[in-house]
Write a structure and sequence with these properties.
alpha/beta, Aldehyde Dehydrogenase, Chain A, domain 1, 2 domains, seven-stranded mixed β-sheet, globular, Ald_DH_C, oxidoreductase, aldehyde dehydrogenase (NAD(+)), EC 1.2.1.3
Length: 510
């Protein structure tokens, strides 16, 4: 892989190992024989760099190297693997400012969010270090005398990770840190529009492996097109594919992986709602909604797409939200005063404008926003839409942009039904001061999402809990809790330490 930085104003990239001439690092081979793509800065629409991508032949080389690296990596005791991950976390700390700036530059999210994404990777490294000394097994009582029944966990081997543009560091980090301490090696296909970020991350990891005399191919990277992703999904050598992206693509990935009896972790679409009960603290509602609707320009999978308000507070919520939206500072994501940066691509603007037009045709009222901002880059106005039925097709469609639909309900039960009626089931929030509402929301007839919040927004998950959703969101789980089990295989082990051979269930075969 090679690259060419075109703008000298981006000198900080050299701190991340991105130079005009790639000299490579020990144990790491950068190659590329595919097409050349441009990394575009969404803040101004101008190219940052050119990257020569990998072909299927390059992918084949990467997989073989990753398999070979597993023979070395799997021999390390889990706490030793945890020590390498600890060093990765420290290396990320050293580069947090520069890497966060690169995320903002290449993806478009504001600088605090760019650095926050790197911090998320650091946090999961810390979590994984502790996990490396805590993997649980079981000793299960055996019904046969002189027998021990055990449960053991071992690494899967080489796995594949396919990530999306909106979290070009954190989502890889969730998978990477846990998979490493579990004993897996990996091939990473990053998003085609954020190649520089993935290169920078891989260089940080490579230096850690180099310092420990380990092959950099423990964590291989392939920047390529959809043919590489398809090859990964069909590749028997990659026992697990973790895919983050759209539901439509995720469905094809799942089918290809399942056809070969592989495993998949799917983090797909979301159509997330905030329910506002009549007794809610409306100041908290407005602050939370502003962050989860407008943050990352509505390009989080957990961004709020729908606000379901009790009819008694609907007008007040609308009035307060419009006032808050009018104060949002839109601009260059690298400027400290900016609260909302650009959309990621020109195509995202087209989808935004298309959704606005469809909402209007269906009778929707644009309370604020609804336009592209006339300046360089991919900027749009954060938008509030009212006067649409909760089951309108456009309301049920996830548009990856800062558009929220304000809906009205008469009761908590109706609000929960509206929350659950969409295909996706990622994140959900209820704002209430009623304890009964809380436990109804958390209960079997409450939210059907993987993330169920109370008095906090739909976005902003902590790494300690498992992250993921239900239904068309894919059902996968990443990050905390017992998500580590997905990166390992389970063996039930029976040991006979007696001189007899009793059979289970008291069967006699003599």
């Amino acid at each position: 892989m090679s690259f060419l930085v075109e703008d000298k104003n981006y000198a900080f990239l050299s701190n991340l190992g991105i130079e005009k001439q790639n000299l490579g690092v020990y144990h790491t081979k950068w190659t590329g024989s595919g097409k050349t793509i441009k990394s575009i800065c969404p803040a101004n629409g101008k190219p940052i760099a050119e990257v020569v991508t990998g072909t299927l032949d390059d992918y084949e080389t990467a997989v073989k190297a990753t398999q070979a690296a597993w023979q070395i990596w799997a021999d390390l005791p889990a706490p030793k693997r945890g020590e390498i991950v600890r060093q990765i976390g420290n290396a990320l700390r050293d580069h947090k400012t520069d890497l966060g700036k690169l995320v903002s530059l290449e993806m478009g999210k504001i600088l605090p969010e760019g650095e926050g994404e790197v911090q998320e990777y650091i946090d999961i490294c810390d979590y994984a270090v502790g996990l490396s000394r805590m993997f649980e097994g079981k000793v299960i009582p055996s019904e046969r005398p002189g027998h021990a029944l055990l449960e053991m966990w071992n690494p899967l081997g080489a796995i594949g990770i396919i990530t999306a543009f909106n979290f070009p560091v954190a989502v890889y980090g969730w998978n990477n840190a846990l998979a490493l301490v579990c004993g897996d090696t990996m091939v990473w296909k990053s998003a085609g529009t954020t190649p520089l970020t993935s290169i920078a991350v891989t260089k940080i990891l490579s230096k850690v492996f180099e310092a420990n005399n380990l092959p950099g191919s423990v964590c291989s990277l392939v920047c390529g097109d959809s043919t590489v992703g398809e090859a990964m999904a069909k590749d028997d050598r990659l026992r697990l594919i973790s895919f983050t992206g759209s539901t439509n693509v995720g469905r094809r990935v799942a089918l290809n992986v399942q056809e070969r009896f592989g495993r998949s972790i799917l983090e797909l679409g979301g159509n997330n709602a905030i329910i506002v009960c009549e007794n809610a603290d409306l100041n908290m509602v407005v602050q939370s909604a502003l962050f989860s609707c407008v943050g990352t320009a509505g390009q989080r999978c957990t961004s709020t797409r729908r606000i379901i308000c009790h009819e008694k507070v609907y007008d007040q919520v609308l009035s307060s939200l419009k006032k808050a939206y009018s104060q949002v500072r839109i601009g260059d994501p690298l400027e400290p005063q900016t609260l909302c940066g650009p959309l990621h691509t020109e195509n995202a603007i087209n989808e935004y404008l298309s959704a606005i037009e469809e909402a209007k045709k269906l009778g929707g009222v644009i309370e604020c926003g609804g336009k592209r901002i006339n300046r360089d880059g991919y900027y749009v106005e954060p938008t509030i839409v009212t006067n649409l039925p909760h089951n309108s097709p456009i309301v049920h469609k996830e548009t990856f942009a800062p558009i929220v639909y304000l809906l009205k309900c008469k009761s908590v039960d109706e609000a929960i039904q509206i929350n659950n009626e969409v295909d996706q089931g990622l994140s959900s929030s209820m704002f209430t001061t009623n304890l009964g509402d809380v436990f109804k929301w958390l209960g079997p007839k409450g939210s059907d999402c993987g993330i169920v919040n109370v008095n906090i927004p739909t976005s902003g998950a902590e790494i300690g809990g498992a992250f993921g959703g239900e239904k068309h969101t894919g059902g996968g789980r990443e990050s905390g809790s017992d998500s580590w089990k997905q990166y390992m295989r389970r063996s039930t082990c029976t040991i006979n330490y007696s001189k007899e051979l009793p059979l289970a269930q008291g069967i006699k075969f003599e």
